UniProtKB/TrEMBL annotation:
A Pfam family that the UniProt record links to this protein: Shikimate_dh_N
Pathway: Metabolic intermediate biosynthesis; chorismate biosynthesis; chorismate from D-erythrose 4-phosphate and phosphoenolpyruvate: step 4/7
Name of protein: Shikimate dehydrogenase (NADP(+))
Family the UniProt entry places it in: Belongs to the shikimate dehydrogenase family.
One GO cellular component term: cytosol
Keyword terms: Amino-acid biosynthesis, Aromatic amino acid biosynthesis, NADP, Oxidoreductase
Catalytic activity: shikimate + NADP(+) = 3-dehydroshikimate + NADPH + H(+)
Entry EC number(s): 1.1.1.25
Active site, renumbered: 70
Oligomeric and partner information: Homodimer.
UniProt source species: Desulfomonile tiedjei (strain ATCC 49306 / DSM 6799 / DCB-1)
InterPro entries on file: Aminoacid_DH-like_N_sf (IPR046346), NAD(P)-bd_dom_sf (IPR036291), SDH_C (IPR041121), Shikimate_DH (IPR011342), Shikimate_DH-bd_N (IPR013708), Shikimate_DH_fam (IPR022893)
UniProt-annotated binding residues for shikimate: 19-21, 66, 91, 106, 227, 255
Length: 280
């Protein structure tokens, strides 16, 4: 029940009907007996500035930000953490009186999940599919761990921006773009392939970012940030080749746990959050 004393947080995106974040966070609040409520907030792109002002006006304590707004919100925030500035995308907002502070917990959530499943990206050859806000976070996280990074994207402009930004931050990593034609000869060399695009997400279940005429590297870890459905076409292709396939539920839980702590200053009950979304 929402009362006059209830602390409100939510998720801003378009669409947000597929999001499991309300289920996960509300389970955590119940487990800790906290008077908090997490709600989905469907916001069209043109309404982002007004929506952010609305967080303050309505007394929200914070919000998550999902596609397609992770980069669009940054000009309207009062403060942005150093890692979110370097990534160029925000997925968590803290509201303090009339101030909006932006953070990015995607990159550390991704690394924490890789650690959980026993994959060490240090020195790995990683292929990132896509060049949006999530690709920025994943590329940044892998750069922090010393992986060599190749980006395959139809948008060569945004891919080039990621490459330029990461290259300026680290001279030790090999960072560059790759074309689908070049991938044909080099696919087998990759240790990690990460889908950061929405292809495969409901209602795009039949689509995959992996080129249909190129064999998937069988020794690679296939990681799909999409978690609904649990097994995307991309992961099916990877499994058919013999590769290990993992969806983005683990990353979702770990990034959410960090957002939870930013809002509440309390450690999140990670096991409760994970059980909540697995039971959906």
């Amino acid at each position: 029940m929402v009362k006059g004393t209830t602390n409100l947080v939510g998720i801003i995106g378009f669409p947000v009907s597929h999001s499991l974040s309300p289920t996960m966070h509300n389970a955590a609040f119940r487990a800790l007996n906290m008077d908090w409520k997490y709600v989905p907030l469907s916001v069209r792109p043109q309404n982002v500035p007004d929506a952010l002002k609305g967080l303050i006006a309505l007394g929200f304590r914070g919000a998550n930000v999902t596609v397609p707004h992770k980069e669009k919100v940054t000009p309207y925030l009062n403060d942005i953490s150093a890692d979110a500035q370097q990534i160029g995308a925000v997925n968590t907002i803290l509201v303090q009186e009339d101030t909006l502070s932006g953070f990015n917990t995607d990159w550390s959530g991704f690394l924490n999940h890789l650690t959980e499943i026993g994959f060490d990206p240090s020195g790995a050859k990683a292929l990132i599919l896509g060049s949006g806000g999530s690709a920025r976070a994943v590329s940044y996280s892998l750069c922090q761990r010393g992986a060599d990074i190749s980006i395959l994207s139809r948008n060569t402009g945004t891919a080039g921006l990621i490459i330029d930004e990461l290259s300026s931050q680290s001279a030790q990593n090999r960072i560059g773009s790759i074309s689908a034609e070049s991938l044909r000869d080099s696919a087998r060399d990759f240790d990690l392939v990460v889908n950061t695009t929405p292809l495969g997400m409901t209602p795009l279940e039949e689509l995959s970012p992996w080129p249909h005429d190129i064999g998937f590297p069988r020794r690679a870890l296939a990681y799909d940030l999409v978690y609904n459905p649990a097994k995307t076409r991309f992961l099916e292709i990877a499994e058919d080749s013999g590769a290990l396939a993992v969806n983005g539920l683990g990353m979702l839980v770990h990034q959410a746990a960090e957002a939870f702590k930013i809002w509440t200053d309390r450690e999140a009950p990670v096991h409760v959050m994970k059980e909540a979304i697995l039971s959906c």
